[in-house]
Each structure stands twice: as C-alpha cells, then as structure tokens.
Amino acid sequence: MRCFLRRSLTMAISLLVFLLIINLTPWTQEDSDVKELKQWAQDVGLNQLHADRNWQNLQRLGNDTNFLNVSYRYLAGVPPHKKKFLTVGLCSVKRKWSNYLLETLSSVFEQSTQEELQEMIVVVHLADPDQEWNSQMVEKVAKRFAAQLLMGRLLVIHAPSEYYPPLAGLKRNFNDAEDRVRFRSKQNVDYAYLMNFAANLSTYYLMIEDDVRCSKSFLTTIRKRLASQGDSYWVTLEFSKLGYIGKLYHSSDLPQLARFLMLFYQEMPCDWLFVHFRLLLTQKEVIRFKPSLFQHIGYYSSFQGTANKLKDEDFEEDLSTLPDNPPADMVTDIATFGNYLPYKAYSNMANFFWGKAPSAGNSFTIVFKQATPIFRIQIHTGCRQHPEDYLQAGLVELGTRKNRCDLHCASYTPIGLFKHGQFDREGLESSTASAPECVRIVVTKNQSEWLVISSISIWTKSGP
Ligand SMILES: *[C@@H]1O[C@H](CO)[C@@H](O)[C@H](O)[C@H]1NC(C)=O
Ligand SMILES: *[C@@H]1O[C@H](CO)[C@@H](O)[C@H](O)[C@H]1NC(C)=O
Ligand SMILES: *[C@@H]1O[C@H](CO)[C@@H](O)[C@H](O)[C@H]1NC(C)=O
Ligand SMILES: *[C@@H]1O[C@H](CO)[C@@H](O)[C@H](O)[C@H]1NC(C)=O
C-alpha cells in the first residue's frame, strides 16, 4: 500500500510538472526569473525527479531573490532585532462562521512559559482582500495582545493584493469547483508570502492554522524532538496529522518552499504541495511525532464555512512527562519486517518496529551517540493493531564501554524484566559505574509470534 502510494505520488508529480511545462502562464512579463523557473520545471520533468539534481535546482530557485519581491504592510508589531529559535506562522482570512484567530493566539501564548516566549515570534498574515475586515482584526489583536506586540513577540502583516497572481480563470484540477480552486490557490500564495517574510526571523519555522489549540510548552517539546533527531537529515518534522498544522521547517528552506508554492499555486491544495516539497528535497518518509502538539478548534473550515470536524486523536494537551530520548543508533539481529525499521520504535514516532518471530538470545540495542545519565526507561511492546505481537519474555540491560567501531557496548548490567510485554523502571541514575552508552533489550525465550516494539522512552533526568 505504501509503495503504491509512493509510486502514485511520483507519477502524479511527474504529470504535474509536465502539465506545468505546457501551461506555465506567468503573471508578470516574461522576465528572466520566469524563464529560469520554466527551465527548472523542465529539468524536473526531464529528470523524473532524480533526487540530487532536483535538490540543486530547488536550491538555485531559492537563491533568486526577485521572484518574491513584496513590500509587506506591517499592520501591528515590530520585527525583532535578534534572530529567534522559532517562528510560528499562520494566515487568517474572513470566515463565514466563527473566527478563532484570537483563541489560537491566546493558546500559543498561554501554553508557553516566559522563557519559551523569549525564543519565539508569532507572525500572522491577515490575508483577506477585505481591508475593512483586516483592520477590524488588527484592532482586536492589538487590544488583546498589546504586551506581546510591544515585546516583539507578535507581528501582523499583509501582502497587498497587487502582488498576487491571477486568481480567476484558473485550472480546474481534481474536479474542484471554481470557487474551491480559487480559494486553495489564493491560500497557497498567502502561505508563500508568509514564509517568504519569515525566512530570516528564526532558525526554525512552524506552520499552524488560525484555528488551533496548542499543547503546553510545545516549544520545549519541539526542542527535545530536534535534539533526538541529532544531525540526521530532515526537511519536514510533523507535530500533527492534520492539514497544514504543526509542520516544522528549517527557516533556511523557506525561500525555496515559498517559491515552490508560488510556482504550483494553482495546481493543488497546500497540504499536498508540502508533501511534494518534502519528497523533492529527498526526505522519503514522513517523520511524525506522537503525541500531537496541535489540535483543531474549529468546526468549520475557512472555505465557505463547510463543516470540518477533523480532529487529531493523537493530540495531548499536557506533555510535562515527555521523554528526552537522546540521539542514538539502533541495532538488532531480529529480522525486520518490511519498512518497520528499528528507529521507528524510538522517540515515539507515530509508527513502530516490527520483527519476525525472535529467538532466545536475540537483542535490540539502542546505542547513544554520547554517554548519558539515565533516570527512567519505559518500553511498550505490542500495539493496538497487533496485540499478540508483544515480547513474551525478555530483560533490559544498561551498557557501558562502547566500542567506536562496531556500535556495541562491552559490558552490560541487567536492570529488570518485561512484564506482559511492558517495561517501566525509574531511579536508574546509579545502576552503572559510568554513564550508560547503550540500552539493550534481550529476548529470553523463543516466540512464534512476531515482535512489535511500539515505543522506547528514555528520561535523562528526574522530573519534568
Ligand atoms: C546559492 O547561494 C549560496 C550562497 O550565496 C551559494 O553558496 C550556493 O552555491 C548557491 N546555490 C546555487 C545552486 O546556486
Ligand atoms: C523590488 O521591488 C521594488 C519596487 O517594487 C524595486 O524598487 C526593487 O528594485 C526590487 N528589488 C529587487 C531586488 O528586484
Ligand atoms: C533579514 O534579512 C535582511 C536582508 O539580509 C536584513 O536586512 C534583515 O535585517 C534581516 N532580518 C532579521 C530579523 O534578521
Ligand atoms: C529457539 O530457536 C532457535 C533458532 O530458531 C533454535 O535453534 C532453538 O532450538 C530454539 N529453542 C527452543 C528451546 O525451542
């Protein structure tokens, strides 16, 4: 199924690029930028998305500064003079029913500590063509969030409509009605201008929508996840399974992403385009974390007030006990089934490790990049979909004296047994003479059922 999806996606994007080459109708005069874009699209098409070439092409696209030359209107707030850790970006337009922008901003600010807020800037792009509505909204925002505006933690901007490409007579893809095409095309441009604006405000950029609730201290959770990623390659980290919510980027990728959205603005909705962008930049698999940090509050989507009850069941409001999971490699001699690779058991990815019937003596080892004190370890085996595939008998050991060459520890100390496939033990700080470098799960009995390791959580200190 996954394979099929990926193939379809690849085919879809090739087709799209082909259509684009035929159809690219620039909204400005045929200047050198547009020529370059056409060339790029052609390259992409010809190469059938050959990974390395495309990455370079996208990079080149990102270097060209003329394409998104917009004079933004600052509706409220002042840009910070110092680069922040995180920009939280969202667009808002007039809705037929309720508007949740103020609630969303309240949630962002109330769920963050003062320390977190110092490292964050929120950018709102009020993107309605109705200036009257934008003004009313700014007034409300200014009244309620005066302190945040003054402290440079909140910015409200607007990209004037003269910078927008045509939004009438667009291609009617996917059998979408004309107003639907218009809505989603404009939304792509709204996002492109927002991202283009935000590109050098911070190191990381988080996309949310104007109708979400945030979980407590989401910035700290994001920081922990980033630390767990170590220096592994990623383009998009996902902190929600919904639409264009909770998607994290390196800010340095934003110029390219903005251009990408502009280039394909009329082809498909943003929540498909961002998937193509990730694939083009060669991150093949979704990296989504559980629990989710953002939840829809809206019951109506911004498009024509159609009912939109999509909720993320993985959302958790309070994550004060979130594990630290230091960067690590995973090795196992249990035969891995398909794509259920060992790393998926670690750092609570929305996925799991799946191994074929393990035998006594098989092991699954987490090898830390650096020795680290360990306070608590919690391991779940089996999962809702495969309750039989739990570890029937096994133990957990802490390892020291890592061998730099073969990723193994020389010396192991047992710390406890699995009970009904679960392991949870704290107070481990003084279990080993030196800080552990490995955690090893050892299978102690042959089992004919397969083994799912659904999560491995490691805390490096006590308390939140
Ligand atoms: C883009 O610009 C950077 C810095 O100016 C440069 O190092 C890089 O080679 C450029 N990339 C391409 C593909 O032109
Ligand atoms: C951007 O646009 C302004 C006017 O709209 C123009 O003066 C300026 O030269 C442009 N900058 C670049 C880099 O093209
Ligand atoms: C963003 O980049 C521009 C141009 O390099 C610079 O003038 C501006 O000060 C930068 N803004 C921030 C917040 O770093
Ligand atoms: C456990 O499995 C291994 C390898 O599959 C086999 O060699 C061994 O005899 C089995 N042990 C028992 C007690 O069944």
Automatic annotation (TrEMBL):
Entry's Gene Ontology BP terms: protein N-linked glycosylation
Superkingdom to which the source organism belongs: Eukaryota
Residue ranges constituting the MGAT4 conserved region domain according to the UniProt record: 54-315
Alphabetized UniProt keyword annotations: Glycosyltransferase, Signal, Transferase
Residues in the signal sequence: 1-30
Pathway in which the depicted protein is active: Protein modification; protein glycosylation
Keyword Glycosyltransferase recorded: yes
The keyword Glycosyltransferase is assigned to this record: yes
InterPro entries found in the cross-reference section: Glyco_transf_54, MGAT4, MGAT4_A/B/C_C
GO MF entries: acetylglucosaminyltransferase activity
Name of the protein: Alpha-1,3-mannosyl-glycoprotein 4-beta-N-acetylglucosaminyltransferase C
Domain MGAT4 A/B/C C-terminal: start-end pairs: 328-454
A Pfam entry, by short name: MGAT4_cons
